[in-house]
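Hi all, posting the design record for the shared folder.

TITLE: backbone redesign
STEP: 1 of 1
STRUCTURE INPUT:
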């Protein structure tokens, strides 16, 4: 990195004030150093390493001003302040690769935000001392994407592709996101489920560099200071996990960090939030996984999980510190907490923080969208259908509640009444009123009058549902007998096997289509290949949360929302369902292809933001006239910019 010393400035008094300002702000906020213009001759250089920023025809008018004099309230890229000045310039203007000072030479090539690899042009190689540090060839970003995809396809093992993608993210941030955006359908299963599950299981072995903050019991009492160790200050989305229930894989402790990292990659790639606004966090309170505790490569606390007051106090300190550091409008997304903590945390903080639980609310929203879309294929309205769930945890009860809310909204019937169309089966059988006293609080609303039933297949035959939803985390539980029973009294049974990763799916796409003789409407949580049955090709849909949470978060941010409301989730579901075309329906799909995900996310963001304004929960005023267009304009672009 090139130092900025007194010789770098034409006015020493201005340097003194800047130096004092930087010293005062080191721990209080982002480092802000100023390089004054050198004059119309271009650039001046102190060979000790100091650089004067050159002026061009586009900057002569403000050559006596500093970069700090740009409008500080400028917001771009999902509502995040334009720290680097990239988006307040037009496409043909040059930008400066700021770090604490102007990045140059070897340091520039090691800075993932500014590094372009072989895409640095001839002028940039001279201006930033890159001669000799790069081969002479100059290539564009498109060729880099083509080469990276060629290299990734050489790996036979998905985890090796995951590691290669994470390495790229650490070397060249813009190329990573360009690659992911342009090849989202191929790479989504690599950076997210199912491969991220294996990555979490082996995280201790593949860990190389920190990609987020690890906050453990050792940091109790000083979490606010720990948050300041993160280099970015303008955080707008935090994804946090305690690693106790990672996908369907159980307690992975500190190694659950792969989930927040993966989710926030999708917030940027699919929802357009600026990477610098995203913070992955793992709360490490220990693990009850004996295998990990005895693993020499495990990177977390080697102790049993803290519970009760000790756990609650650590989480409360974290929630308070986040709000103090980043403000009222920072979105905190809870990920993969165990049932008992997930519901408690959401209930405790939903009235004081902008919080969202993807396992409860995100899953519910994406499944509701699929059900709304499926009505075009199976006919009727939601209230005419009967729903049976295998699994009564976070996902199952969250989906059930949102379905009941949507039916209540459509029919004006009381929520208690609409819940009666929805039945849940847990590990002890059908949830019925005779079990109510022994049920956890989040299961009690689903205890209806019925005789006890132990087995799922018997529940299917007794309830005769039109929709069967699996959220149990238990693989191969939709047996042939269960699926054939669904097909025996439904012309087009809707079967959603939602558990992740693929190994935990309640059934495969091939099993569902074969056992229903090609009549079912099928979607799963993890991707399955197309299936041929009786001369027809079926393309299974994927009820992936990635359809919802990136656009949902973007909608909260562009509206400046201060709380999440259930009506926003319904708005997101309706927006997603509206994106399914007749061409998709003709293939039996109830979700649109991921190839259009950024457009879909903008639509969802607009609907969510509109609902925030309607409910009086938005603070970004006045409301934009065209919210969808505004959402698209706020999206981060991974295209390279030219440097001064």
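Okay, here is what came back for every position:
SEQUENCE:
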């Amino acid at each position: 990195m090139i130092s900025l010393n007194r010789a770098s400035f034409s006015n020493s008094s201005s340097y003194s004030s800047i130096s004092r300002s930087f010293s005062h702000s080191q721990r209080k906020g982002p480092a802000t150093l100023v390089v004054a213009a050198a004059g119309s001759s271009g650039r001046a250089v102190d060979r000790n390493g100091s650089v004067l920023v050159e002026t061009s025809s586009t900057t002569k008018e403000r050559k006596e001003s500093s970069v700090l004099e740009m409008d500080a309230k400028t917001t771009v890229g999902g509502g995040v302040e334009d720290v680097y000045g990239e988006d307040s310039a037009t496409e043909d203007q040059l930008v400066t690769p700021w770090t604490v000072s102007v990045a140059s030479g070897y340091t520039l090539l090691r800075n993932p935000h500014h590094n372009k690899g072989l895409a640095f042009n001839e002028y940039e190689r001279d201006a930033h001392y890159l001669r000799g540090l790069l081969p002479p060839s100059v290539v564009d970003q498109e060729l880099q994407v083509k080469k990276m995809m060629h290299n990734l396809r050489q790996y036979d093992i998905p985890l090796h592709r995951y590691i290669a993608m994470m390495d790229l993210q650490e070397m060249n941030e813009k190329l990573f996101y360009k690659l992911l955006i342009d090849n989202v359908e191929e790479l989504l299963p690599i950076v997210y489920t199912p491969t991220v599950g294996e990555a979490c299981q082996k995280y201790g072995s593949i860990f190389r560099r920190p990609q987020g903050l690890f906050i453990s019991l050792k940091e109790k009492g000083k979490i606010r200071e720990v948050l300041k160790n993160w280099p970015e200050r303008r955080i707008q989305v935090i994804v946090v996990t305690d690693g106790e229930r990672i996908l369907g894989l159980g307690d992975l402790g500190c190694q659950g960090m792969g989930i927040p990292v993966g989710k926030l990659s999708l917030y940027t790639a699919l929802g357009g939030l600026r990477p610098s606004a995203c913070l992955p966090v793992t709360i490490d309170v220990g693990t009850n996984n004996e295998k990990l505790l005895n693993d020499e490569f495990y990177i977390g606390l080697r102790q049993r999980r803290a519970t009760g007051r000790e756990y609650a106090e650590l989480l409360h300190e974290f929630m308070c510190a986040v709000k103090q550091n980043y403000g009222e409008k920072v979105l905190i997304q809870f990920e993969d907490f165990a049932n008992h903590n997930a519901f408690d945390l959401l209930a405790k903080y939903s009235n004081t923080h902008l919080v969202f639980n993807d396992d409860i609310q995100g899953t519910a929203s994406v499944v509701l969208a699929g059900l709304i879309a499926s009505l075009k294929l199976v006919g009727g309205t939601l209230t005419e259908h009967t729903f049976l769930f295998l699994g009564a945890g976070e996902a199952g009860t969250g989906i059930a509640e949102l379905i009941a809310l949507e039916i209540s909204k459509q029919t004006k019937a009381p929520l208690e009444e609409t819940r009666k169309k929805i039945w849940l089966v847990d590990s002890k059988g059908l949830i019925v009123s005779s079990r109510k006293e022994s049920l956890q609080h989040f299961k009690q609303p689903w205890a209806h009058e019925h005789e006890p039933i132990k087995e799922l297949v018997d529940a299917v035959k007794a309830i005769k549902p039109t929709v069967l939803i699996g959220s149990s985390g238990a693989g191969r539980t939709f047996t042939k007998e269960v699926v054939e029973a669904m097909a025996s009294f439904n012309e087009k049974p809707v079967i959603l096997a939602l558990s992740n990763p693929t190994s935990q799916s309640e059934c495969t796409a091939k099993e569902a289509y074969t056992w229903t003789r090609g009549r079912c409407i099928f979607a799963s949580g993890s991707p399955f290949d197309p299936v041929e049955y009786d001369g027809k090709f079926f393309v299974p849909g994927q009820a992936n949360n990635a359809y919802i949470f990136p656009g949902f978060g973007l909608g909260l941010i562009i509206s400046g929302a201060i709380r999440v409301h259930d009506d926003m989730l319904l708005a997101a579901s309706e927006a997603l369902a509206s994106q399914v075309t007749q061409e998709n329906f003709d293939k039996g799909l109830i979700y649109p292809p991921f190839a259009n995900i950024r457009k879909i996310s903008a639509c969802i963001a607009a609907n969510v933001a509109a609902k925030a304004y309607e409910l009086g929960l938005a603070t970004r005023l006045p409301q934009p006239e065209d919210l969808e267009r505004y959402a698209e304009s706020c999206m981060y672009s991974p295209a390279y910019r030219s440097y001064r």
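COMMENT: Residues 1-79 have pLDDT under 50 and may be disordered.
Let me know if anyone wants the other runs.
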